[in-house]
Amino acid sequence: MLPPNRIRVASVPAGHVYIHHLGPVQGSLPGLPDVHRLPDPDPDSPDNPATGKWWPPVMLNSGWIDANHDSFDVFHIHFGFDAQEPSSLQEAVTALRRHGKPLIYTVHDLRNPHHESPAAHNAHLDVLIPGADALITLTEGAAAEIERRWDRKAEVIPHPHVVELDTMADYARRPRTHGGPYRVGVHVKSLRASMEPLPVIRTLLDAAREDGNMVVQVNGHCDVLQPGGARYDAGLAAFLDEEAAAGGLDLRVHDFLPDDQLWEYLAGLDLSVLPYRFGTHSGWLEACRDLGTAVAAPDCGFYADQGPVFGYTHNEAGLDAESLKAAVRAARSAGPPAPLAPADRAGQRDDVAAAHARIYSRLLERTGVLQ
């Protein structure tokens, strides 16, 4: 028998920092039900909780839903369905209907950053957006596109903090003046289809030469910038190696960084440039906001709706180099932004948690789960 005012959520996924930060900072919220998110099943052993690996999500299998529908009250999809066929995703939606379980879908991506073509993701969206009982998205711009394309209204709930609150507080106490040249960073990590870093980096190098007191830092993962890597980009690697050898840029090649090193790196930049030619929202942008690092973001997607950015023109038609140079100059003239106050982020997180609890409660009122 369920305790009163406790909602069990089958969350796809559960083991991701975004989902961790959908809960209140301290336990529960007055007047609202407690929300308990089921752990991700282990993809290699679906009867057991995952210990770290959650992909591919077991919960999206209609057989899992049929076998486990008594263990959850609502089903909430965020991401991780890339490998699903639209037909199997529809089977999951149908299984939820069969068992009377409300479906919530948070539309993080209107264009999948890993797909060169939008077709596959659009086919997924055409299942999930019409099939959901409630829709959430992160920005007003994305909500407007959802309404235009599917005639569905999505509730806008902003992205919560990414950096942990105590870490944010630690960085907020540090001085923001680094000394030395103005440092502009581009992260090429494991290249996504949405990224086109080379023209962005070339433009930033031109801006640095014109400025005379600016350094361009490029961080990239070994699998992209070292021969033999799974996503080795020989042209990009050769260009970066040549510019680094000539002293034109600060090149740092490494594997995936643990959080403490990633935050140190981001906090060491004056400006982080997002080199995307398409996309929707960005957790990277939110981490920079948490740490007080300015962001230059392209005009594709809805990055400017998430928070203050220095915008430039970059999309599938190409890069407007002068707009990027202007964004860098504007960021430099503005000086370092103040990092978001941990107390403000904590308050926002509680608001985010409350908004989710209210949506779940509203959907469950007809089921008698909430006593």
From TrEMBL:
Class of this enzyme: transferase
EC number(s) given by UniProt: 2.4.-.-
Keywords (A to Z) from UniProt: Glycosyltransferase, Transferase
Molecular function terms, GO-annotated: glycosyltransferase activity
Region (Disordered): 30-53
Protein name: Glycosyltransferase
Gene source species: Arthrobacter koreensis
